[in-house]
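Slide 14.
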Amino acid sequence: MRIFLTQILVLTSIFSYGQELTTIKVSVPNKTDEVFIAGNQKNLGDWQPDIVKMNIISDHEREISVNLIFPAEFKFTRGSWGSEAIINKLNEQPNFTLNEKPNEVQHYKIQGWADRIDNYSTFNTFLIKSLFSKILNIDRKIYISLPENYSNNTKYPVIYISDAQNLSNFEIAQQTIRQQSNFRNFPETILVGIYQSDRNADFGLNKETIYNAKFQDFIFKELIPHINKTYSTSDYKAIIGHSNGSEYNHHLMFSKDNPFNAFINISEELNALFPYMDQSWFYKSRDKYEKFFREYSGKPITLFIASGKYDIWHRLKAGKIIDSLYETSLNININFKHQLYSAEHNSLVGKSLLDALMFIFDDYKNFDAFQIELNKTKNYQQAKNNLIEKTKKYGDYEMTIEDEDIIQTIVFNTKSFEIFQQWNEIENPENQLYSNLILGDILTDIDPEKASEYFEKAIEEKDKEIFKFLPSIIYNEVQDLHRPKKALEILDKILAIDQSKKLLTSYFIAKTSIENDIELTQGKRALKYCNANFIENRFFTINDLQKLNKK
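Slide 15: predicted structure.
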């Protein structure tokens, strides 16, 4: 028996030599998903897709602990290679590699399955659909990310993005738009991804064709009309392109029937094959850009170009050349920006996309422009109408309470009574929200004389809320209007309104008198009353009284 056990231990040590127990966990989109792991060693099924099944640990989690030899390579399936897991690419998913034992549980997020992508919504964040193209004579896959609060009763702008088979580019666009629209910095937007299994054929960027006009026709004549027919869209459209997609974008922009209002070109190029071909093609592309900037007279368009300092040198050069070409034209119909980032070719997408989207949505609730126009024209209604009109070019828009608060703050910060009156007459014609006291408080520092008039009206009306505004009333008379004696007269009138507030009124009488060295008999008497009758309150402390006692 002892000999048999020894043999088992020897065999175990041989087979386990170099192996280390490793735990791998995945999140799955469906409760019913069975997950298999297949990899480059026996404990991973020797690449058989239906041998090593992972354990169910919760509705949406599967896990396995297995002895591995490193490096270990593997993938996940539902039991066949046709049902391979989608994690960060929808086709040709690379192997996952562990070069050494990880310090913690290795966790992967399965977004979907290769055999279900035609009708599957990965974690319900976007739709994957097929559209048959008569022009291309093939089914084209498209991704559609709708706003979280999508409604057929609302018109939404649409942003298209090429190379959507690269989930990293599509998802960062989706997440940025969704996050910023949740904060109401962007309008809620429909994002449409154009899946490209053969992007070079789609773009056709080569010496023979320059670019593929058929793919343009697919976008202009089939894809955009399909989206407009299927979903509730506004007239505003933009397109994002990276690398060769950015170069293809400018051919779309040059087109006479261009339907887009804005272009985001990340890692621009003037010819995708430059400098590996006849350089005359580079100059032909440059000349087209120069002519476009010089002669374009169509609808206003926005163009954002992002370049990386560590990108391929001729892509960086192209961005700078296009920038210089625009500077010589300054076409008023083209809103242009070229921005340089500390990035290489791929990281440039993540570095630039937020800036790019902010630029093409620059007119959306542009309160800075509202403030500049208001200060310049002194015309509140005109400035507000322009703010709303520019915002509505993207789609439906209703001003929120937060937007109204920002506008009110801008109006008050102008310190212009003329503008304040316009605002008050338009937004609050019957002063239903604003008493004389509140209006006086608002006008302190804007128009102190007018503020004083409103405070006087409140005294005449014997408004018992006046005691809450004593600091503003005294500040307005003493600091703004330099009338401390008038302040004491006002305080005497206020004291007659409510004798129960004598302590508070007496403090302001004492403070105004002693600090300004006027009517000191009255001031000392008021201070004596405060010392004898002090109780804690939110307007002054015993230390405040002691400071006055020392003067």
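Speaker note: Residues 213-230 form the longest helix (18 residues).
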